[in-house]
Amino acid sequence: MATLESLSKDSFNLHQNGQLKNDSGKENKGSHKLSTEIKMDIEKLYEAVPRLSSFFFIEDKIGEGTFSSVYLATAQLKSGKVERFALKHLIPTSHPVRIAAELQCLTVAGGEDNVMGVKYCLRKDDHVVIVMPYLEHDSFLDLLSSMKLEDVREYMYNLLKALRRIHHFGIIHRDIKPSNFLYNGCLKKYALVDFGLAQGTPNTKIELLKVVRTEDQQKSCLKTKSATSSGIKHPPSQTTSKALVQHSAEKQPIKRPWPPTQAKPGKGESSVPRSVFGERSMNVRNTGIFEGASVKPARSIKTADITSRKILVAKRKAGPSKSTSSCLIRKSSVCPSNLTCDCYTTDRICSVCFSRRHQVAPRAGTPGFRAPEVLMKCPHQTSAIDMWSAGVVFLSLLSARYPFFKASDDLTALAQIMTIRGSKETVQAAKLFGKAVSCSKECPKLDLRTLCERLRGTHCFSKRKSSQKSELMDCSHISGTVPAPDAKDEGIKQTASLSSIQEVQNQARKVTQDVEWNSVKSKAKSSDVKNWCAVSDLAYDLLDKLLDLNPATRITAEMALEHPFFEGI
Ligand code: ADP
Ligand code: MG
Ligand code: ZN
Q1: Percentage of residues in the chain having pLDDT higher than 70
Q2: What mean pLDDT is predicted for residues 243-269?
Q3: Are 9 and 62 in a shared domain?
Q4: Which residue, 189, 316, 511, 559, has most beta carbons within 10 Å?
């Protein structure tokens, strides 16, 4: 087990008292001028943890999350060498055990196999600063347009390597996404960061994650039907109130979740509208305005009663597809008749539903990266949830869309997954977790190659062009018609989300999709396009195995590294 180096004057050249200058004597070495706000934050951090100023010169703020701020700092080593560090200042309200667990993940599992290590940790009162080696990294959005297939292969291999390592230690990261996997394309360096939401498997080697687990379980037992901002809520409240509750939970990041059940928004992830899905299909009560699919709550089959409920969507106007009004509903035999109620699809909760046992399950993470079993609130989650998230990252890399799934609530996220992986398949998987899901429309499982090629704009170049003509038609609701590859479309601005779940089902609305698609395509050089035409079936086979709806059969990191897609690495 790695231990923290002691932060002492033996290893550093100390700064003059209170003089926050680096070796060059300038106040700030960064290439850009710091905003007043950042300067003030830096000042505050020096005040909160005065010892910092003896060792480090804080240059800039490089990350601002819900539960922490990350700064770039330099320090002069005794050897005279100036080294860069990342200082992660955890919000003072973080739970001490949570902080200690994050640190322990870094010290025990970090420093090898692309898992970020830790150098020092400073604390003053409730302020904790984790000092890590600094890894300069590329923005994922920039990467998307420039990465070659070989880079993607290496990126995924290195991400999986990090996952294999942490899973070996019984750590479930719970927040696998590009901003937590740093990548420096020039140096070919990678680092998995942010164990702030990590959880332990039953036999985790991280002692403090056992404490996290225990606390989590205790809380789960205590929580019964009290209102909570987590998880797929009580079906009837599955309306505006749910969306609001969850939304506010994500907007008010005051306390680090303890146990970690709250959603954690990603930084800068929603700023560029390149997602495949929009957020319009909030799980608000369907008014009939939309013609798309919506997902009804996942719940325990034992207590669920769905049969007596009105199927709102069935009454809706039929869309272009024949399956428009189909509904997927669990059999009634499992539902005790005395538990039937009428509040489903209404915005009230009846007494029957109030008396139902509330199910608590961990669901920390970022909505678009959450595995189906997390979205469906399965209490027994495994490291397979990280593999799903890795699959979503891979999907982004292959389709050049980021974020791929963008949803503000779990059911929207689930509906988006259904659109790609198939509604029947999702319902089937839900059944395995003892959950019943109903979907207003049947969505066929999409061919991943066709989907990614169409989104990336390489479909017409594909050597499989002619053989896939029918598939091209099948998935036309995803990205609209494919314009000629050399069509001039400069000047067309990226528009908001490509398609909401409703639109996905509506083949008629293709205009906005085309605009965004064109915009993405315009960035791709024709050489890149060619490069991307040769994506082997192996890539899509691996993607399919990562995005396995069933966590029990989903590929593990260890197995994935052995996948023939990585042959020769
Ligand atoms: P949070 O819990 O707030 O998400 P993270 O640990 O994910 O905190 O760090 C936030 C951001 O800070 C990262 O997305 C990354 O851009 C930057 N960062 C974190 N650690 C490092 C590091 N060791 N080197 C360089 N940048 C880092
Ligand atoms: Mg993070
Ligand atoms: Zn009810």
Answers
A1: 61
A2: 40
A3: yes
A4: 316
